Amino acid sequence: MKKVILFGANCGKCKKAERIIHKVVNDHNLDIEFLKTEDFETMAQHQVMYLPSVLIAGKLVFKGVIPTEKELIKHLK
User: Taking the complete model, does pTM exceed 0.90, yes or no?
Assistant: First the structure.
């Protein structure tokens, strides 16, 4: 099981990133542990500078962008 952390606030871009992540996980029946955080200490620990950002299996894969479904599938499979 891969762990996915979405670093984001309650803005439109962050909400859209969350919707896309959930869609990909559900559409492809992926075994993913998902967490969304707005905690600045956690963001600092992972050197997150831009929102939304996505950490997949311990690697900060997307920084300040909304990932596409195609990009997410590539990293989650």
Answer: yes
Helix ranges restricted to H, 1-77: 12-27, 40-45, 69-76
Query: Alpha-carbon distance 43 to 70, whole Å?
Result: 25
**Residue 12 neighbours by CB distance under 10 Å:** 9
Chain segment 18-55, per-residue pLDDT in tens = 999 999 999 999 999 999 999 999 999 999 999 999 99
Type of residue at 6: L
The torsion angles phi and psi of 5, rounded to 5 degrees, stand at -120, 125
Fold of the domain built from segment(s) 2-76: Glutaredoxin (3.40.30)
* Domain chopping of the chain, boundaries: 2-76
Question: Quick one: the chain helix, strand, coil %, rounded to 5?
Answer: 40, 25, 35
